[in-house]
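From the pipeline queue, job 12 of 40. The input is one protein chain; the requested action is below.

Action: predict structure.
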Amino acid sequence: MTPERRVHGTVRGRQTWDMDEEELVAAFGLGKVVRPMAVAARGWGDHNTVYRLHTTRGSFAVKAMEREMDELMVERFDIEVAAFNGAIPVPRPVPAGSGGPCAQVGGVQVRCHHWVTGAAKTNEDTAPEECRHMGSIVANLHLLGLPWSPRFDRQVADDSLSWVELAEAGARRRARWALPLTENLVTLEAISASAQQWRDNEAALPRVGSHRDLNAHNVLFGGGDLVLVDWDAAGPIWPPWELACYATLWSARRNGNYDLDAAVAFLAGYRGGGGDISGDEADTLPRLVDNVESWTKKNVRWAVVSPTETQDVNAELLIQGLLSTPGAVVQRQRLLDEAIDQLATSP
């Protein structure tokens, strides 16, 4: 095997992937390699890496799943494929030879999609017209009423370590996030209890299969089009919550400010796409506590079991973000109520 036909992945200073490109194209039926594969993007904390691969059958985005995966990837893939078949702007998924979403190549789980040209953004950099477009896409996605597997409700929450245990583990290795965690244990335990209430009540909510992580960094912007990428968190969602969460998140601006025009535009796009707006969407926003708490605890656990400087920084940032979430909920509720009121008086 010639050197140019192997890719050596490096994450946080260590080699993680020594991959045979020919093995990769065989796993997904991609034809023959015509140009060496190159890194195109890296995910949160440099855990996952996306490569661009050119073959005789086209150009593909290859994602090395270097972060831990749960047991629901097939069920998430089913939602993604159904969204693609329902004309939601999604890169065409390429199933592995097994028919599932992933193939094992070079000791790493890999996913593949047809390449789509575009660039992601931060939520803070989105313009009102882009928010309107996104609102319409989200409405179309919700209106599909995509089914989802009941296995999602049997998934165990990431509570293998309590906040107390995480604080003790961080203190033992003098991690940078240990002190703010320890100083705020009472608050974090209260936040955790609130998050658990939402998890306990979720089964009673009317849900549809959806993306569930519609941050602008999971959207490709290009030529006026928006394309939804990274469906690895897909699953059942309560539509009013997803609308409220991302109408306000895409309206966020730097220094803690929000753009009312962006929020109104997102809602207008949702309504224009056929989505229903009851006026009570702001009442769903306290669920954000569960959303942020789960992601923060997962990252702090990673910082315990696989400590790196990058993961320690991420854990510290997320702990601070979680502590500020109750206040952010109130701010976003006010924004959404004002945006809904303004939308009601617009043509």
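Job complete. The longest helix spans residues 309-344.
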